[in-house]
Amino acid sequence: MYVLPELPYAHDALEPVVSAETLRTHHGKHHKAYVDKTNELSAKAGLAGRPLEEVVREARRTGDQKLFNNSGQAWNHAFFWECMTPDYQPPSGELAQAIDRAFGGLAGLKEAFVTEGVNHFASGWAWLLAGADGLKVTSYHDGDSPIVHEDGVPLLVCDVWEHAYYLDYKNDRKGFIERWFDQAVNWAFVEAQLTAANGQGQPFRYPAPERDAPSGGAGAAPSAPR
Length: 226
Prior knowledge:
This protein has about 230 residues and is mostly helical. The protein has helices at about 20-45, 50-60, 65-80, 95-105, 105-120, 165-170, 175-185, 185-195, and strands at about 125-130, 135-140, 155-160.
């Protein structure tokens, strides 16, 4: 059984960039719904118990669009939570150097990232990836994810579905992404992903599925956090 990962911070820790109300709704309702549906659909597909990354890739390979959408969204959201922190620190070291080479500095990356997110039509995700030719910005629609493409290793993502920002920013997607980029990005996590992309350490993986326990019995699996 795939579990809803707990947030790495309190619901109100990212205010005023992201409100506690938004996080409770986004994490406890939207993300939970994707995880619950993934559990249902992966069992039907005979994929229950496999790492979520494998489920996403297999669903895409077989054309199981419902499973792909839900498992991809479950994975993307878990990655997104790690990309934010209440203790903002600007990028440094190897990451800052890579940003300088690719974008001429953090301001250049911000311009490229915000433009990509704002111009992405309808629902989706804005990504920073590390590829063979260095860092690049791209976006994917709906539940699509870089883990099923050859574009590069994901370093950073911003959710540009309306449910990620509408309670706080209404239809001002640009205002949300700009404020998010300036104040909430967890550059330490981004740097760890870059280090993994360069062959040192492991990149982010979704929490391993838990073994299902007998209903109501001793050792029953805990309910997903709200």
